[in-house]
From TrEMBL:
The gene is lysA. Belongs to the Orn/Lys/Arg decarboxylase class-II family. LysA subfamily. It holds the Pfam family Orn_Arg_deC_N. The lineage of its organism: Bacteria, Bacillati, Cyanobacteriota, Cyanophyceae, Chroococcidiopsidales. This is Diaminopimelate decarboxylase. It catalyses: meso-2,6-diaminopimelate + H(+) = L-lysine + CO2.
Length: 503
């Protein structure tokens, strides 16, 4: 098994990849978000990378390439660490949600739910996935800045909590009443639902919802834009004032007053999310203080607010220089800030929620690719091409994100070159890693890119008509299919070819 080392090259020039220097205490709990590789990563007697006891090169032989490999233990451990930290630091009720936008599929939702997590969804599709995975609607929270009437209607019927983002949505919900009727801007501008056939498809039955009691008002929370800044990429900051999400501070009191008049809505709490891949703790501590003040104000309008959701955002280690706090440290900071703010306002502790995505699943997964062609531009660089790219990992081209990689079939080979890992798309910017330090590579080698669990599969596309790769979940030397590889038939499944187009 691997010891705890940093990424890079060791004294003997070998690939030298693993994990956090200050985790040298064998008994210390390793926080998955601080590791480069999944917790169960190791090197086996063939000098191959193994994860969950499975040889990565054998997984590629069996399931094909590229392949997402999810380590069940890392995901479960991250879920448990969140819950244990709340148990240790928060004397009130709490609920951890998995932000399924990071990777929404049946298997991942089912694992998170089985560890006691609820699910944050942001579209009808994510809601459908969570429900189909068996997640109880009581622990599903539905976000989004432009939910359609059709989506709202299905959400009401499912019985989940709706996190209301803006006036348009609030007024639609107020009009919709029970059973999802009414509202502006539904299909064809008519409003209303998609009809009973679709409700049955959702497992909601013909009448009423699986989780909703038609006599009860719809449970909502309000998303506020707290005006708190944090240091992360501009595209993934959401809590600053110039954000498309949430009610601005100057609207909030009018919103509270409006909700107080709506018999079919009950506002159970407030929500804010300030951004993603954050390494500082202070912004969330400031957020806690601001939000507790808004809780007090909501109560003064007679709203029965008892829940406070402070979003997600804890960062992960993509490269050796990333240094995020552990899950335990982050939760502790959050809980202490909420407790202190409540004490100073003389408020009872709210039910505290958070909704991490990346820090639960990001480092639990790697992507294995097969190396193919290469090209050396003298005195400039060597491109080494793999059989995937921006379609299975759009983060480098979208956010200039950095990744690290190893060659899974040559784990102890000396690092001898710095190359540029290129994808196979018809796009010059399709570069996964600009400078990768690797041993000598050759066609057929298996390149493993680390930290691909979050916002990879969920943001994957079929650009250039590449089928999406398969994903497996590994544990105890066994690999199980999580997502089947798309086929060429899948690629044309939605295509229509009207007769008139045929010559
Ligand atoms: C509303 C909301 N909640 C939760 C998350 C999850 O964030 P992260 O994956 O950084 O934990 C996001 C993404 O930024 C989000 O927009
Ligand atoms: N997709 C972003 C994170 C956005 C989170 C959702 N608000 C990323 O890959 O880093």
């Amino acid at each position: 098994m691997l010891s705890t080392q940093l990424a890079g090259v060791d004294n003997s020039g070998r690939q030298y990849i693993f994990n956090r220097e200050n985790n040298r205490n064998e008994n210390a709990q390793r926080s998955p978000n601080q590791e480069l590789l999944p917790l169960t990563a190791g090197i086996n007697s063939h000098d191959h990378l193994e994860i969950g006891g499975c040889d990565v090169t054998e997984l590629v032989q069996q399931f094909g390439s590229p392949l997402y490999i999810l380590d069940e233990e890392s995901l479960r451990s991250a879920c448990r660490q969140y819950r244990e930290a709340f148990q240790n630091y928060y004397p009130g009720e709490f609920q951890v949600l998995y932000a399924s936008k990071a990777w929404s599929c049946l298997g991942v939702c089912a694992i998170a739910h089985s560890e006691g997590l609820g699910i944050d969804v942001v579209s009808g599709g994510e809601l459908y996935t969570a429900l189909q995975a068996g997640v109880k609607p009581e622990v599903i929270y539905y976000h989004g800045n432009n939910k359609s009437v059709e989506e709202l209607s299905l959400a009401i019927e499912s019985g989940c909590t709706i996190v209301v983002d803006n006036w348009y949505e609030l007024k639609n919900l107020a009009q919709m009443g029970q059973g999802g009727q009414g509202g502006q801007g539904g299909q064809g501008g008519q409003g209303g639902t998609r009809g009973p056939r679709d409700r049955r498809e959702w497992g909601l039955g013909g009448e009423g919802g699986q989780g909703s009691d038609s006599q009860l008002p719809t449970r909502i929370m309000l998303r506020l834009t707290p005006g708190i800044d944090c240091h992360t990429h501009d595209y993934i900051r959401t809590g600053h004032l110039d954000s498309k999400f949430g009610f601005d501070p100057d609207q909030i009191e009018a919103v509270f007053a409006f909700i107080g008049q709506q018999p079919n809505l009950t506002c159970v709490g407030l929500h804010a999310h300030i951004g993603s891949q954050i390494f500082e703790r202070q912004p969330h501590q400031d957020l806690a203080e601001v939000m507790v003040q808004w809780m007090e104000k909501a109560k003064s309008y007679g709203l029965p607010v008892t829940e406070l959701n402070l979003g997600g955002g804890l960062g992960i280690r993509y490269t050796e220089s990333d240094d995020p706090p552990s899950i335990d440290e982050w939760v502790q900071a959050l809980c202490q800030a909420v407790k202190a703010a409540c004490e100073s306002q003389n408020l009872p502790l709210p039910k505290l929620l958070c909704e991490p995505g990346r820090s639960l699943i990001g480092t639990a997964c790697v992507t294995a690719y097969t190396i193919g062609s290469s090209k050396t531009v003298p005195e400039i660089r060597t491109y080494v091409a793999i059989d995937g790219g921006m379609s299975d990992n759009p983060r480098p081209i979208t956010y200039q994100s950095l990744y690290r990689a190893v060659v899974a079939n040559k784990m102890s080979a000396p690092v001898s070159e710095t190359v540029t890992i290129a994808g196979k798309h018809c796009e010059s910017g399709d570069i996964l890693i600009k400078e990768a330090s690797l041993p000598q590579t050759e066609p057929g080698d298996i390149l493993v890119v680390m930290g691909t669990g979050a916002y990879n599969y969920s943001m994957a596309s079929n650009y250039n008509r590449l089928p999406r790769p398969a994903a497996v979940v590994v544990a105890n030397q066994e690999a199980k299919m999580l997502l089947r590889r798309e086929t060429y038939q899948d690629l044309i499944r939605q295509d229509c070819l009207p007769d008139s187009l045929l010559g």
